[in-house]
Amino acid sequence: MSDVTVQDRQHPVRALWEAMSSQRRELGIAGVLGAIASLSAVALLGVSGWLIATAATMPPVLTLTVAAVMVRTLAISRAAFRYLERLVGHDAAFRGLVQLRERVYTRLEQLAPTGLRAFARGDLLARLVADVDSALDLPLRIVLPWAQAVLVSLATAAFLLWLLPPVGAAIALLCLVALALVPWLISRTARTAEARMAPARAELSAAVVRALDATPEITAFGATAPVAERVEELDTGLTRLNVRESVALGLGGGIGTIVQGLGVVGAIVLTVPAVIDGRLEGVWLAVAALLPLALFDVLATLPSSALAYQRVRGSAVRLAEVEEAPLPVAEPAKPVAIPEHFTGLTLTDVSARWAPGTDALQGIDLSVEPGSRVAVVGPSGAGKSTLAAVLLGFLPYDGSVTVSGVEVRSTDGDDLRRHVGLLSQQAHIFDTTIADNIRIGKPDATDGDLDAAVRGAQLAPWVARLPRGLATPVGAFGLAVSGGERQRIALARLLLARRSMVVLDEPTEHLDGPTADALTETMAQAFEHSTVLMITHRLLGIEEYDRIVVIDRGHITMQGTHAELMERGGWYAEQWTLESERQDMARLLPTLPIGRAVST
Amino acid sequence: MRPLDPRLLRYARSTRGFIGIAVVLGVLTALIVIAQARLLADVIVRVSSEGAGWSDVRDTVLLLAAAFVARALIAWLSEIAAVRASARAKQQLRSATLEHVLALGPTGPGATDPGGTAALVTRGIDALDGYYARYLPQLVLAVIVPVAVLLTVLGQDVLSTVIIAVTLPLIPIFMALIGMYTKSQVDRQWKTLGVLSGHFLDLVSGLPTLKAFGRAKSQVEAIRAIGDRYRSTTMGVLRVSFLSSLALEFLATISVALVAVSVGLRLAEGQIVYGVALFVLILAPEAYLPLRLVGQHFHAAAEGLGAADRMFTILETPVPAGGSTVLPSGPVTVHVEDLTVAYPGRATPALAGVTFTAAPGTVTAIVGGSGGGKSTLLSAVLGFLTPTDGILGASAGEETCDISDLEMAAWRRRIAWVPQRAHLPSRSLSERPTIADAVGLSAGGIAADEVWVALDEAGVGDEIRALPDGLDTALAADGSGLSIGQLQRLSLARALLADADVVLLDEPTAALDPATESAVVAAITRLAERGRTVIVVAHRPSLLEAATQLVRVEAPESADPGADSKETPPIGHQIQRVGW
């Protein structure tokens, strides 16, 4: 449960702003630079208007020189300050982005891996990463334009107030409309329209995902036509809605021009009588009429800011979900250090669960002495992976788990994992070289250590065939590696790390028979003299283990050596016999000729 | 980037109409812009220098107000048209793309990266909104308005016309020059950017692994370092693009300033009339505004076209012609002789030198190491992949034919397939298809008793009977609710229901415990007894019991294992960030 109450919860966009506006001073400078640029644009038209209006009175040319110089200067300053604003503003925004990334990463790190399960489905994680990037729009497309608009409005309204108070007041009022009312209206319209379209969009999106995921089956079973029709039907529905909403969505295009027209016409209506009465010199009419024209051109960017706000809000809400996700495991304030000398692992009456209510493990008593090899076996769903999560400190537990006599929940998680290593079902291969992927186990390892780990994982022959050897890049941008090679890289990583004890969590789960057998063989050699807790549902290859523990539905049902378990009969004996009989047939495989049929 | 991709006109036909509307609205905009400047100048001049009273200018002011209203209306209409055109274009592209992906089949572009393609056709393509709503109408305006303004100014003041006429073309020329000069640099930097942003995702995806090694916390340093590189690289790109907008803005404003000063000074010397001077001053910025805005919307446009471009890549992949031969009904024999198959775009074949004949009533077990090409063989039989060498044929009755010469839809109706990981879609793509829907994919409506027979034969009948909703039990999109083993057997039941001559099974017992596995093995044996031609990929030894012949396939040795490495980043990394 989240301990953040509704009252405490910050507005997600404000929270996002707090998280990425570390460069307040720089952003402030950018705002001022931008305001100068915008003000130059407004003043350029104002001064030009004054220049021409004055020139019309045919004064000595000298009178106009200052204005002429000002016009040229304003033209230059407008372009120059805009350039500076962009440089300073973007730099500050990107610095803020770096900080936001760090923050999101740190949070995800605290959640991983247990608390990440909710975010790791589909492309949610990729989307989250994209959300972080899109937070850039907050300073650049929302806060800075708006702050500049406010500054320019204030300055222009103040000048007009000085020139002719009613005009100043009218323009100030319209500025308020352009700064607040129009963006609010635009963003509300967009939100309402989007809310109406969202269900259709979600339905289409889900159908598209399902069609693409199942393309092979749909093609093979000849269902292409009905499926394409169904997508088309959903798409037509969404498009029809979108067309219907276009009237509201297009509002942003015209509304700014209306405000601009009100400003210009209003200024004329209010200034003309003053000029006719002689309260104001005629030359100022041009200034009073042209300033609003230029001012509301500047404010015309605000509707698109309002739309950007809508988008950023979505990202901010998703990021806030990550911030507010409950931490699966609370790290102790004063962690107890685990002694360097490993004296074994003991579980006493351990229960654990992923969600409240249903215990995945119940009343587990288990010990692993230094140098011994223990296997935990059982059908899928028996709670084997839950056990691994508890041992690695990824899941809270009831009862007691001690490593070298220290209670796991009172240790620092990273300290625990410096003693207990893990080889999981599908280790991640990072976008870097094979060597760097392995060095994650021990970053300061010597080349000798690295080679030993590669040999231990029996990766050497494969690596030798690669043109760049260990320096070959793998991962999303690199060489595609097969499941077997992937697990061997992970194994080398674990070997390099030299943990006091290793937990092997179904490392062969996603591999086919021969590849799994080969990896099992390699692991048996590599960990011959280590402390091992092997979690598996494959019963072959663990016969030599010191103890085999059978669990089912969260409980230990049996334990003993292979010989003892075979003698007692039951699930283990039955399964082992089935598997080993078939294993004999599989041994035939390498004797078969490649690519030729052999009848049985 | 081409300003207007002709393929957009071809695949998104709504674009043509929209361009027409944009041109009409653009001409109207130009006329109103000119009228507005004329009216504004008129009011100012008459009141401030000709001593006109309020009643003299009232009509002009009203006309001016009307001009603003008209301009607002046009802007509104233009936005409405843009939203509609964009919505329609997106639908046209999306439908065409999906239809094409389905037509190209599982090995075509798009289907090989379903996640990326889904993101592209949903969120990614929304970037086209920026193209339609901002860029395209602005591009039209940038052609029409400056010309109209220039012609109008020409009628008023020759010197101002010269200033504008000289500077205006400089803007696109200058932009193009800067663009050309910096293109390679910018391209390189965008590429680095893609890699850098991929790294963050990579680290986040690998968090469980990093954490297991106690390396997760220390990666904050790496995040910061990557972030700083990202920032400096981006700033490198931006400095260049800001420089071009600096040049653009500078040219635009300095030209307006030159016009202002020139008409002002000449006005003071009486060489020009006040009204003309003011008119020219108000009008001059309007010549530059659309060009500047085009530059501003350039990136929104590039993003939209980028997404569209990735769709065009899919759309422009030709659908293999396929043959027209239809085998006579009756048992089918599959002939494989020295068969070599490579995935499109891969140098190394996935399967090479395989020879066997799968006759009716036999079970051929395909065995071998991982990545050995076992599933590839099934894909080739299904016609998803075309042989690069050797013979892959089928015969029925008297007729023998290469599979690639067969009429594909008819051939696939003769095959039932149990894939490694079944998705069990329904024909209606419903989010939670019922068991009955999912197993009847090939048939549409089928009778319940037939379904029960198939479920029982697949060894999953009793388990379904035990469910409260029986056949009407909904399957979640990710198959949750049922175990992977149950899904596999449902997929087998679907294959049994399809009542096909050839049955292809890809590791059908991968997630089954030995007892259930035996039931499936028995079902496979029965299929053969009924005279079906069964080819089964076996990765567990138990299936070999049912086999009449074994074929071992192993991956051909790659001459250069690095040759097939992916060079382009996955589409998912470039997806636009608009929420969907």
Care to describe what's here?
Chain A is α/β, with parallel strands linked by helices. Chain A contains 20 helices and eleven strands. In chain A, α2 runs parallel beside α5 and α19 packs across α20. Mean pLDDT of chain A is 88; it is low at 1-7. Chain B is α/β, with parallel strands linked by helices and 580 residues long. Chain B folds into two domains: 6-315, ABC transporter transmembrane region fold (Up-down Bundle); 333-566, Rossmann fold (3-Layer(aba) Sandwich). Chain B contains 16 helices and nine strands. In chain B, the strands form two sheets. Chain B has a five-stranded parallel β-sheet, sandwiched between helices. A four-stranded antiparallel β-sheet of chain B has the order 2-1-4-5. The longest helix of chain B is centred in the first third of the chain and has 51 residues, at 54-104. β11 of chain A pairs antiparallel with β9 of chain B.
Provide keyphrases for this structure:
heterodimer; A: 600 residues; alpha/beta; 6-stranded mixed β-sheet; 4-stranded antiparallel β-sheet; 20 helices; disordered N terminus; B: 580 residues; ABC transporter transmembrane region fold; Rossmann fold; 16 helices; 9% strand; disordered C terminus
Helices and strands of chain B: which structural class?
A: alpha/beta
* Mean pLDDT across all amino acids of chain A: 88
Using the 3D structure, state the CATH architecture of the largest domain in chain B: Up-down Bundle
Q: Report the sheet with the most strands of chain B, covering strand number, pairing sense and barrel closure.
A: 5 strands, parallel
Bin the strand percentage of chain A. Answer: 5-15%
In CATH terms, what is the fold-level topology of the largest domain in chain B?
A: ABC transporter transmembrane region fold
Q: What is the oligomer described by this structure?
A: heterodimer
Number of helices of chain A: 20
Strand order across the largest sheet of chain A: 6-7-8-3-9-10
Characterize the largest beta sheet of chain A: strand count, sense, and whether it forms a barrel: 6 strands, mixed
What's the end-to-end separation of chain B, in Å? 26 Å
The largest sheet of chain B has its strands arranged as 6-7-8-3-9
Class based on secondary structure composition and strand pairing of chain A? alpha/beta
Overall morphology of chain A: elongated
Mean pLDDT of chain B: 83
Bin the helical content of chain B.
Answer: 55-70%
Question: What name goes with the CATH superfamily of the largest domain in chain B?
Answer: ABC transporter type 1, transmembrane domain
Which CATH first-tier class of the largest domain in chain B would you pick?
Answer: Mainly Alpha
Order of helices and strands of chain B: HHHHHHHHHEEEHEEHEHHHHEHEE
> What fraction of residues of chain B sit in β-strands?
5-15%
Any idea how many domains of chain B?
2
